Amino acid sequence: MPQMVPRLQAGSKFQEIVPNSEYFMTTLSEVARRAGCTPATVSNVLRNRGRVGERTRQRVLEAVEALGYQPHLAARALAEGRAPTIALMVSSIANPFYPEFALAVERAARSRGQFLIICNTNEDPQMGRAYLQQIAGTLSEGVLVMNANLDFEDLHQTEARGAPVVLCMWERPLQPPGLPCVAVDFRHAGELAAQHLLELGHRHIGAVVGSKVSGIHAARYEGYIDALRAAGLDAPPERVLHAADTTQGGYRATRELLERDPQLTAIFATNDLPALGALHAAADLGLRVPDDLSVIGITDIQLAQEARPALTTVAVPTVEAAELAVSLLRELIEASPRSSSAAGEPRVCVTSAPKLVVRASTGAPRTG
Amino acid sequence: MPQMVPRLQAGSKFQEIVPNSEYFMTTLSEVARRAGCTPATVSNVLRNRGRVGERTRQRVLEAVEALGYQPHLAARALAEGRAPTIALMVSSIANPFYPEFALAVERAARSRGQFLIICNTNEDPQMGRAYLQQIAGTLSEGVLVMNANLDFEDLHQTEARGAPVVLCMWERPLQPPGLPCVAVDFRHAGELAAQHLLELGHRHIGAVVGSKVSGIHAARYEGYIDALRAAGLDAPPERVLHAADTTQGGYRATRELLERDPQLTAIFATNDLPALGALHAAADLGLRVPDDLSVIGITDIQLAQEARPALTTVAVPTVEAAELAVSLLRELIEASPRSSSAAGEPRVCVTSAPKLVVRASTGAPRTG
DNA sequence: GTGAAAGCGCTAACAG
DNA sequence: CTGTTAGCGCTTTCAC
């Protein structure tokens, strides 16, 4: 925004301040002048603070109205020692899951009077660090982190500088990460997916894990394996493939798995995007879903229900997680400045359990 | 962020300022103290301004390093009379097109040192207004508007308050909207789509227009119609349907169109999402694409290439538009404060032309 | 070259 | 009830 009034030169101390024309932003003092009181009083009226006479209050409100006054957020932030935004770190907002989450976060933040800054880290820890250092504490009061491949080191430093950090989707409720987080029981999600497939009668299942071996999707795969074992099945390594967490990744992995073992009657993917890729692979191979091949994913992104056939998946409470994350962040912000580093284990909020959503991509295997 | 140091009480004027421990944010004066100079000098060093001796400069840089100093963005903004962010208004970031655009905008903004605030208006002008009034000029230096259903009135007011506004995807380069904008020749996009279908030999084409009659997609439809007419065909009203700009909308409209006229061999949709819906409708009706039905969209969102069959579409230069929009916004910001309202027609930047991208969803119609 | 001082717009403590 | 005042952290003239 432009400088509203020529800056007063040193020495012009007694020059009358030029009132802003209607063109530009009105300030508190202008409102005050018009209402015949001081800025402090206007401030009090606006924030319902301190006692103000009814007559004055009216005059102030009129002036505010007449001048279209809007508080200057940066100024207010500075004076209050708080910042008007929260930051959401994601690897790329273009990943189809994030926008749904970001939307929920924005709503939650907004309802608490804060704005949302989107930070795309591009999976690059350097970028993440740059973002954290620049805005945490100076422009953003706190930071929400969605798998963005950040250094924990950097996150702790961010906390130390006074800007709380919340991890938005921790996958292992029982193994807290050493940072406040919202945890979703993804192990259970994997279990549910496996159980569904088992109940339908599948015995030859391929698994597409949308990350490196020990990566973010490991818990989901563990749950899947556990369910298999509980049913007396084993999970030979040639039936698992680690792939990029994208449609492409799922597509290639599925083709590869089916090539290795044409007997597979189902594909379990640790995320919806790769599951969608599996659907495409099936289509390209002339396999009918679910008759020839069943496919199940995890998350329940919007695309899942829009795919053809619609994707069976284990739904994760995205909106709930977003709301919990924002609440938790607020709590941490409100709590004593140096609480987080001082106290013991940081807080972990667990969302409600993932739920199976049966759609058209799963069914009983061909018999024979 | 927390208050870093207990606010000095009135009367404690001579109390020594508590230096921030390593826990919290360092300020300019702390750096100055450590470097044995004044804040002004530190500021000068950091912004390469004013002459500073090499020795001092070194000491300052060391101190900055040692204390991990980061400028306070809100404070800087206030002092400079500018804001550190730009705002992107969208109806909902969850609409699959926006994230791709937002990503490009964020990159462009970031490379110019600004952060991106995402504002979901939810198609509600009230919400849009609230956003504009609150952040424009106080937290955001300018506003980028992506079809968010905002009142032009509000946008003009925003400009008048000193925060430039840029419309990001104006559909009619030749009919400027009275606000600065980036225009994409969507009429031409419609034309290209129609020509492609015509060249393949289609004569019975259904059109799904992803908005109200006079809505945002009207130009695309005009281009389509023009191409048809140029080929000597007419476009009977029963072959057009206006629908929501979503997969669902496209799905329903396509079914309806095919019910009205089973002879249709192709569907033209004014956007990719409805086109994807058309694909699903075809699948559900047992029609093979493209043998029984060809489908073409406009935009080329990521999903288009991931769909099965992959969607033929007319690609719009999204990244280019994002970059132009950010550049234009910056120019307006840098330009004289009250330029925009003063001068004549606001600037219009036109992107390069849309381009046909042929994929698997279009082909020659069955003969017979 | 470097420092002193005013000011950005707003808040909060305290005095009247 | 209302005004005075100091201060948030930084920038920027202007003197020295």
Characterize the structure shown.
Two copies of one chain form a homodimer. Chain A folds into two domains: 80-185 and 319-350, 3-Layer(aba) Sandwich (Rossmann fold); 186-316, Response regulator (Rossmann fold, 3-Layer(aba) Sandwich). In chain A, 42% of the residues lie in helices and 15% in strands. The first copy, chain A, contains 14 helices and twelve strands. In chain A, helix 5 links the parallel strand 1 and strand 2 (115-120). In chain A, helix 5 packs across helix 13 (318-334), helix 8 runs parallel beside helix 9 (218-230) and helix 10 packs across helix 11 (272-284). The first copy, chain A, binds a DNA duplex (16 and 16 nucleotides) through helix 2 and helix 4.
CATH fourth-tier homologous superfamily of the largest domain in chain A = Response regulator
Query: Approximately what portion of the residues of chain A adopt beta-strand conformation?
Result: 5-15%
CATH topology of the largest domain in chain A: Rossmann fold
Mean pLDDT of chain A: 91
Strand order of the largest sheet of chain A: 2-1-3-4-5-11
Oligomeric state of this protein: homodimer
Question: What's the structural blueprint in terms of helices and strands?
Answer:
The structure is a homodimer of 368-residue chains.
Chain A: H1 28-35, H2 39-46, H3 54-67, H4 73-80, E1 85-90, H5 97-111, E2 115-120, H6 125-135, E3 140-145, H7 152-160, E4 165-170, E5 181-183, H8 186-200, E6 205-209, H9 218-230, E7 240-242, H10 247-260, E8 266-269, H11 272-284, E9 294-299, H12 302-306, E10 312-315, H13 318-334, H14 339-342, E11 348-350, E12 355-357
Parallel strand pairs in A: 1-2, 1-3, 3-4, 4-5, 5-11, 6-7, 6-8, 8-9, 9-10
Antiparallel strand pairs in A: 10-12
The structure holds a DNA duplex (16 and 16 nucleotides).
